[in-house]
Design brief:
Pfam families: CotJA (PF11007)
Strand order of the largest sheet: 1-2
Mean pLDDT: 80
Strand content: 5-15%
Low-confidence stretches: none
Order of helices and strands: HEEHH
Shape: elongated
Protein name: CotJA
InterPro entries: Spore_coat_CotJA
Distance between the termini: 27 Å
Largest sheet: 2 strands, antiparallel
Radius of gyration: 17 Å
Helix content: 10-25%
Organism: Paenibacillus stellifer
Length: 75
């Protein structure tokens, strides 16, 4: 039930002025948190075990994200 990262990513165009001194980055991306896709918390959501919940940062698999800032480079 987890939302795949491809659905969580958004892309937006960046304005590149004609006198910018550096080559422009034309598109930037950001990740939308998975809780924004749930209108309400349904009853009886499956839960991670406590050690896994601490590792994932959330108790519910539906609210976990596979986003990792170290892999994406922070752009």
């Amino acid at each position: 039930m987890a939302i795949p990262l491809s659905m969580q990513e958004r892309v937006y165009p960046v304005y590149a002025g004609p006198f910018d001194p550096c080559p422009p980055i034309l598109c930037k991306t950001y990740v939308v948190p998975p809780h924004l896709f749930l209108g309400f918390q349904p009853p009886n959501l499956p839960q991670f075990s406590l050690p896994e919940a601490l590792k994932q940062g959330t108790l519910w698999p539906a609210l976990s994200s596979s986003y990792c800032p170290q892999e994406r480079g922070g752009n």
